[in-house]
Amino acid sequence: MEIQISGMGWVLKHAMGCPGQVRSRDPLQAVGDIKRNEVLPEPYKPFGRLDGFSKCGFSAIAFALAHAGVKRGEPGSRTALIASSVTGCLRTDMKYMDTLSGNVPS
Fold this sequence. Notes:
Blueprint: E1 10-11, E2 15-18, E3 21-24, H1 52-68, H2 90-100
């Protein structure tokens, strides 16, 4: 089974979104400093654990899917996408582990 999704999505320093849904960003904000509610209307707990690079990839994919008309969690949906980086969310996981063990940098 093969599926083709035709949609565009992007994350830039000054804007992100897809055709018809462009959101301005503070150009002083880091590109990877993206909040979940800037991308998804509903909660998605794993988003906060992603490193900046992965958030950019995830966000661009989410906007491309929205532009293609693919809705999240549609009944019978069998679409899966994988985006990865060299470090994944390891750096973020290590920072979180430090907070649990009380090793919070000052």
